Amino acid sequence: MNDNQHPTSRISGFHKRSIGERLNLVAEGRGLSPESLAHLQGGGQVALSVVDKMSENVIACQALPLSMGLNFRINNRDRLVPMAVEEPSIVAAASNAARLVRICGGFVGEADPAVMTAQVQLDEVPDPIAAKVRLESHKEALLALGNEAIPRMVSRGGGCRDLEVRVVDVESGLLVVHYYVDVGHAMGANLVDQVAEHVAPEICRLVGGQIGLRILSNLPLRRLVRCEARVSAEALGGEELADGIARASRFAEKDVFRAVTHNKGVMNGIDAVALALGQDWRSIEAGAHAFAALHGTYRPIATWSRTEDGLLGRIELPLAVATVGGSTQVHQGVRAAFELLGVEDARELAVVMAAAGLACNLAALKALAGEGIQRGHMRLHNRKAEAEAARALEEIGR
Ligand code: MEV
Asked: What is the pLDDT of residues 320-364, one digit of tens each?
């Protein structure tokens, strides 16, 4: 234990243990339910009857490794971070970077309330500028109308918080109303779609035109997460490496070709946690890259700058994630991952995901600015090649 309540995320020699031993180590003291423990001990098989309800035309399951990101200390609390990803070296790299950050105090982050954006499109509005003024003058009534669509969310403390009217194209009378809806611990897509569909006829009655789309935006700018990490040059392995990482970050800030690869490295961490925890990673990806390009040029969502004694890393992006709904309840593997991670709500989850993204980014830049990516990366890739060769031999022997 590293504090009174929460077990440590620093488990040395973890990778050298057998899978069964690793599972015992992480299960210890983390209150895994008997169902989750049995599920993990069984290798993570999910009943076909369950997956058959998650999608259509199902014929089997497609399994991925479920790994543990170690050493994470986030907002003064240790966290074991479940990660599901097919690419070798990501989990090791994230754990190594988290160890460096941990030595220097850990990650510090915060997430906005879970406010999603819904869009109601109107075309051919006769006078869009006047329509905007008219809708804004009915704001309170329109918000109350939106709340009618989601009474249970309102009773749980969520609901419509604000709206904005955007004149997108005067010529064609294209007007868009944004509803900002607090969706609590949910991802919120269904909730905001319900709001958009419910309010559209009244909006149209007020200003005319033709109702178009009524759907969430996957760019929820009022649902951002921010996370920071400090690493000393000493922990990194020297001033030269710290300078190299800062220069690598500047490269991404100045060059779109580098920025996209830089962000891919960030998303290695965020997507792996998203997948382990049953989140809608397509929406996360769409939002992250749109955010990166928000001001006209595509930019890095995480950056590193020099401080007196090392580096300061910062990440910011929209993250629509959930601790309820979607596959969070139906998929036993996802439930087990939630139990291991132990987050209270969607905002805490967002901070963990941002920390995982920042850790992956630090690990990538450290390798790239130092010995190059190939050495460590290829060592772990070779393990996969060995496994493939062993499997091929086994098949020949059959
Ligand atoms: C590989 O999955 C990710 C990296 O390309 C990220 C980067 O270049 O920053 C190593």
From this structure: 999 998 777 789 999 999 999 999 999 999 999 999 999 999 999
- Ligand 1, atom 9: nearest CA belongs to which residue? 262
Q: Pick from 89, 247, 262 the residue to mutate for probing ligand 1's pocket: most ligand atoms within 8 Å of its CB.
A: 262
DSSP assignment string, 245-274: HHHHHHHHHH-HHHHHHHHHHHHHHHHHHH
- The reply to whether the predicted model has a pTM over 0.70 is yes
What are the angstrom distances between the C-alpha of 67 and each of 160, 224, 292?
38, 26, 28
Q: Which CATH architecture has domain 65-111+224-391?
A: Alpha-Beta Complex (3.90)
Q: What is the mean pLDDT of residues 275-289?
A: 97
| Domain at 115-217, CATH from 3.40.1790.10, 3.30.70.420, 3.60.110.10, 3.40.50.2000 | 3.30.70.420
Contacts of 116 (CB under 8 A, 6+ apart): 180, 181, 183, 187, 188, 189, 191, 192, 216, 220, 222, 223, 320
Nearest CA to ligand 1 atom 3: 265
- Measured distance CA(294)–CA(267) in Å, rounded: 17
Q: Which residues line ligand 1 (CB under 6 A)?
A: 87, 261-262, 264-265, 268, 364, 368, 373
What is the domain partition of the chain in residue ranges?
65-111+224-391, 115-217
Atom index in ligand 1 nearest the CA of residue 265 equals: 6
Q: Which residues are catalytic?
A: 87, 264, 280, 377
